[in-house]
From TrEMBL:
InterPro entries: GMPPB_C (IPR056729), Mannose-1P_guanyltransferase (IPR050486), NTP_transferase_dom (IPR005835), Nucleotide-diphossugar_trans (IPR029044). This is NDP-sugar synthase. CDD domains: NTP_transferase (cd04181). It comes from the Bacteria. It comes from Streptomyces filamentosus (Streptomyces roseosporus).
Length: 363
């Protein structure tokens, strides 16, 4: 059997590092390439043969079901389980177990809700089945693994240890990291303690390893991006539009730009680098937008220059204003002739007067 029919998506996080994008919207529902990011994960799971998905929700849980419903529009059967108290990754997996119908030895796919990946899901399932593992992990290689959990493996791919966020050179024994996608043998999920917070990374996996369970790692170094920061989220959206990150859910052809229906773009405006213009948004004459996301009903006034930035729903960017690596919250107003750079975040509903913020090159 080389297909997993069921999957769990962990979508309960608060997305604190993504604020102000996540003030009104849970992280998986922030638009990437024109649709909520979660849509891409659901569509890729469906394309790999998954039929039943359980969403483990917590923060702003009430927004998921009205949007996705029972999942039939995506060819899926979607159910929802909401944590009353945050349970961590392992606790969330255990909490949704009653919704699963797989037999004890059948594979259940599990995805973190903030990872954009080109992982070959079917290959992971096949590897899991062939190796006879209790749990299989998608591993990817990164240049600087200090911010991640390291997962060394032996010559057969069997996991030998879990090393959380190493700091010294001696601790960095591999460049393989936990990439946030797993396959659990169904019976293993029931061994996770219920009713309390559990970290799958810090408790479940090391505990299974210590008990002699077979944990298998599969290195797949295709596209992989943790969308935990605004800069990464903007880049992920652009990569989806450009076709660098694969998804069957991008609403249009891949290319330099994605303009959603009802958006208005001036004929001489330049949109490049995987820029997305949301429904009802307006891009004024002479504006230049590169590698950026302009959410629905936002307005970019004439001759503004926006690079690697995100403009929230209903926000307004004044004429000749320059944004570079900036995040503008929903409904914010940035007046004309401002210059905002280098990760600056403007809170939802804020107002910046004309010419009030300037960054000069000598600062």
């Amino acid at each position: 059997m080389t297909e997993a029919k069921e999957a769990i998506l962990l979508v309960g996080g608060k997305g604190t590092r993504l604020r102000p994008l996540t003030v009104h919207t849970p992280k998986p529902m922030v638009p990437a390439a024109g649709v909520p990011f979660l849509t891409h994960q659901l569509a890729r799971a469906r394309a790999a043969g998954v039929e039943h998905i359980v969403l483990a929700t917590s923060y702003l849980a009430e927004v998921f079901e009205p949007y996705f419903g029972d999942g039939s529009s995506l060819g899926l059967h979607i159910e929802y389980v909401t944590e009353q108290e945050p349970l961590g990754t392992g606790g969330a997996i255990r909490n949704v177990a009653p919704k699963l119908s797989s037999g004890p030895d059948e594979p259940v796919l599990i995805f973190n809700g903030d990872i954009l990946t080109g992982l070959d899901i079917r290959a992971l399932v096949t590897s899991h089945t062939v190796s006879g593992a209790d749990v299989s992990l998608h591993l990817t290689r990164v240049e600087d693994p200090r911010a991640f959990g390291l997962v060394p493996t032996d010559a057969t791919g069997r996991v030998t240890a879990f090393l959380e966020k190493p700091q010294t050179p001696e601790e960095i024994v591999t460049d393989q990291i936990n990439a946030g996608a797993y396959i659990f043998r169904r019976s293993v999920i029931d061994t996770i303690p219920s009713g309390r917070p559990v970290s799958v990374e810090r408790e479940t996996f090391p505990g299974l390893l210590a008990s002699g369970a077979h944990l298998q790692g599969m290195v797949d170094s295709t596209y992989w991006l943790d969308l935990g920061t605004p800069a990464a989220f903007v880049r992920g959206s652009a990569d989806l539009v450009l076709g660098r990150a694969p998804s069957p859910a991008v609403p249009g052809r891949c290319g330099d730009r994605l303009v959603l229906p009802t958006a208005s773009v001036a004929p001489d405006a330049k949109l490049t680098g995987g820029t997305v213009v949301g429904a009802g948004a307006v891009i004024g004459a002479g504006a230049r937008v590169d590698g950026s996301t302009i959410l629905e009903n936002a307005t970019v006034e004439p001759n503004a220059v926006i690079t690697d930035s995100l403009v929230g729903a209903g926000a307004r960017i004044g004429s000749r204003t320059v944004l570079a690596g900036a995040v503008i919250g929903d409904g914010a107003r940035v007046g004309a002739d401002n210059e905002l750079r280098d990760g600056i975040r403007i809170w939802c509903g804020s107002t910046l007067p004309d010419g009030s913020v300037r960054f000069s090159s000598d600062q």
